[in-house]
Design a protein that fits this description.
alpha/beta; TIM Barrel; Rossmann fold; Immunoglobulin-like; 6-stranded mixed beta sheet; 5-stranded parallel beta sheet; 17% strand; binds beta-D-glucopyranose
Length: 752
């Protein structure tokens, strides 16, 4: 917030009540305008306002040739989803405003997942920065670009927690932790919406997928979810509640069933919790045809039944399915939904359109000049590059192999692997970059490692070769020998391996976390050249690579970094940027350990050694992960000392303060994410072994120390119990502070 100079304070105080009043009247104003309009609408027009039609990303057609324009003119379309063609959007808006009886403008929705025209790192990578200001700023940029291109509504943030990295959509969320997930959810909502939805550079946000979509059985997309209410409330709902409280204008239903009930017709989720307990007032849109899919789930008989069930659960708008168009009027005529329920849903749609300023100026977001001035500004690329570098997690750096500097023992570097220089498959991104187009896109916008790292290393005096083996396909013997030859001719190997961009995201579940397409073997064979290697992973999910973990001295998780992949990688490998990212998800040793997450319950029979029987473990694998939640190295080192609590006993109205001194014990400046966890040692039910309750990212010069203090209140110590009650139990707690979830200092206190 801008500071007001002291001399203007009296003036500000005078105007403050006016400002508050103005805001209040403007909300009332909207409500009044909504009621006026609603009173004029026919049932068909109302049902039309609940219909969202598919745009050119899925139809592939120009609106002048398809039927969409006629549907709009007939008042049957309220919103268009995923339309890229800018002039088409103007044509459609004109039809809605000038050629329908009431002239209600369209609202354009779009999946803005990690950037719009300027592509940022995938959301999971962004979460690895633990830098909420940077995340918010990235969504500000995405919103500015999308809004300038005629979009009004982002289907984002995706705030689903998951414990299963086989699920392809793990890349879209903030990982496994509800506390971190909540902070990220708020940052994204703020980033998209700013504080005024009617500004032409903000978008309405949409928290999705409500709810529990991240827990499909077997990690299989769209599959059944069955979970206790305790887990739902403790683990899944917090980021949704955070998004609601941050003012997310809309929510999206999930595709899945939850305990047998499809999420779109789940009254408990939508009406009781979201609108009831949280008092949230926004619009709920279905996921793609998820109203219609209630029929396929066997939970509704036909369109009328599905319409009745979804509308009366509290869901409002039908995305791309046409179920309401076909079935809602019948449901109304049969008395299965009331006129009042229909009106309430329509009110929410109209309120959204009024808040976006669309009634005041339907073409506010369709200004060709602003579009031209706004898209792909060079500073957006800079922000994307900085964030990509900040998101890269250094997993291993034996012997200080990195950063690479010219004075070191290596002269010749071989950059090998499918992602050394890939120019297709949405590599270094994901298919969720629809602003670039779905199928055809301009891949020259992506900076590959070959384009950036090679010249940068050459400028430092290295000799560099690029051997980008096995693009587009699984690695073969030919690739393996090419990689080995390249490695033999070099002093150091940089292996760029991972996943294809098009294999990340929705409906991209996998059955194994092993490095796909023969790439672990590629590294093994290249290692026969006996040269030290740096493995750079371009990945969208935790992968398992036991041989690499064991044998390769340096490993960097680069994720899918977006347009600036090669530049950001260069910044990190050359030490221009000191890695500071921390894993927002656990990396298991093997697929068989799933579900694996740090905040699990303890067991009554913990395993103390591998293979020990009568304990909870495996005969063939330890219970520990390959890399724990919150983990990540730096080119410097940090020590933690002197964990102090201000009190050893607190009552329910007091605040516990836990302070720790963090020192940069290395030779270069670095940033550290200091993490604070608690454990409720005994409660009415079993509680997790650790739960994140706070974090702070600090920057320290070599030798510098700083004291970081975390404050914990009763609500931080409370939990949802098996009777769906939130409470904090008196008794002993532990507090842990450290640089990841497993290496911590600890102290004990009591809540009276
Ligand atoms: C996805 C949503 C997305 C929607 C629109 C669905 O398949 O689950 O996340 O917003 O499509 O593209």
């Amino acid at each position: 917030m801008k500071k007001i100079p002291i001399r203007l304070l009296p003036l500000a105080i005078c105007f403050l009540p006016l400002a508050l009043f103005a805001q209040k009247t403007s909300v009332q104003n909207i409500d009044r305008r909504v009621e006026d309009l609603l009173a004029k609408m026919t049932v068909d027009e109302k049902i039309g306002q609940l219909n969202q039609a598919a745009g050119d990303i899925s139809t592939g057609t120009d609106v002048k040739q398809d039927n969409l324009l006629n549907q709009i003119r007939a008042g049957r379309v309220s919103s268009v989803i995923s339309h890229t063609n800018f002039s088409n959007k103007i044509t459609m808006q004109r039809a809605a405003v000038n050629e329908t009886r009431l002239g209600i403008p369209l609202v354009f929705g779009f999946d803005v997942i990690h950037g719009y025209k300027t592509i940022f790192p995938i959301p999971l990578a962004q979460a690895a920065t633990w830098n909420m200001a940077a995340i918010e700023a990235s969504e500000r940029i995405a919103a500015a670009e999308a809004a300038a291109d005629g979009q009004n509504w982002a289907f984002s943030p995706m705030v689903d927690i998951t414990h299963d990295p086989r699920w392809g959509r793990v890349m879209e969320g903030a990982g496994e932790d509800p506390y971190l997930g909540s902070r990220v959810a708020e940052a994204r909502v703020r980033g998209f919406q700013g504080d005024d939805l009617s500004l032409p550079n903000t978008l309405a946000a949409c928290a999705k997928h409500y709810a529990a979509y991240g827990f499909p059985e077997g990690g299989r997309e769209y599959n059944t979810v069955d979970m206790s209410d305790q887990r739902l409330r403790q683990t899944v709902l917090p980021p949704f509640e955070a998004a609601a409280r941050a003012g997310s204008a809309t929510f999206m239903n999930a595709f899945n069933t939850l305990n047998g009930v499809p999420a779109s017709m789940n009254k408990y989720l939508v009406t009781d919790i979201l609108r009831g307990e949280w008092g949230w007032k926004g619009l709920v849109v279905s996921d793609w045809d998820s109203f219609g899919e209630t029929i396929k789930h066997g939970a509704a008989e036909d369109d009328a039944d599905a319409s009745a069930k979804c509308l009366s659960a509290g869901s409002d708008m039908d995305m791309a399915g046409g179920t309401f168009q076909r079935g809602l009027k019948k449901a109304l005529e049969q008395g299965r939904v009331t006129q009042a329920q229909l009106d309430e849903a329509v009110r929410r749609v109209l309120r959204l359109k009024f808040s976006l300023g669309l009634f005041d100026d339907p073409f506010r977001y369709l200004d060709p000049k602003r579009r031209e001035q706004t898209l792909e500004k060079p500073e957006y690329r800079q922000a994307s590059r900085a964030m990509a570098a900040e998101s890269m997690v250094l997993l291993k750096n034996d012997g200080g192999l990195l950063p690479l500097n010219a004075g070191g023992p290596f002269k010749k570097i071989a950059i090998i692997g499918p992602y050394a220089d890939s120019r297709g498959n949405k590599d270094y991104m994901s298919f969720w970059t629809l602003g670039l187009g779905m199928r055809q896109y301009d891949s020259t916008k992506v900076v590959t490692p070959a384009m950036a790292l090679k010249p940068a290393l050459e400028a430092l005096g290295f000799e560099v070769t690029i051997t980008p083996v096995c693009l587009d396909a699984a690695c073969t013997e030919v690739d393996y020998s090419a990689a080995l030859n390249a490695a033999r001719a070099a002093d150091l190997v940089i292996a760029c391996i991972g996943e294809r961009g098009i294999d990340c995201g929705e409906s991209r579940s996998v059955s194994t976390l092993e490095l796909p397409r023969g790439q672990e073997r590629l590294v093994q064979i290249a290692a026969r050249g006996n040269k030290p290697a740096v493995v750079v992973l371009f990945n969208s999910r935790p992968l398992s690579f036991p041989w690499i973990s064991e044998n390769v001295p340096a490993i960097l998780v680069a994720w899918q970094p977006g347009f600036e992949a090669g530049n950001a990688l260069t910044d990190v490998l050359t030490g221009k940027v000191n890695p500071s990212a921390k894993l927002p998800v656990t990396f298991p040793r093997s697929t068989g350990q799933i579900p694996m997450y740090y905040n699990h319950l303890g067991t009554a029979r913990p395993q103390t050694r591998l293979g020990e029987i009568w304990t909870s473990g495996y005969l063939d694998l330890p219970n520990t992960p390959a890399y724990p939640f919150g983990y990540g190295l730096s080119y410097t080192t940090f020590s933690y000392s002197d964990l102090k609590l201000n009190k050893s006993v607190i009552n329910k109205s007091e605040t516990l303060e836990a302070s720790i001194t963090v020192t940069n014990t290395g030779k270069v400046a670095g940033e550290e994410v200091v993490q604070c966890y608690i454990r409720d040692l005994f409660a009415d039910i079993s509680r997790p072994v650790k739960e994140l309750k706070g974090f702070e990212k600090i920057k320290l010069a070599p030798g510098e120390s700083r004291t970081v203090t975390f404050k914990l209140k009763e609500k931080d110590l409370g939990y949802w119990n098996h009777q769906s009650k939130f409470k904090a139990d008196a008794g002993k707690f532990k507090v842990f502070v450290g640089g990841n979830s497993s290496e911590v200092k600890e102290a004990e206190f009591e809540l009276k």
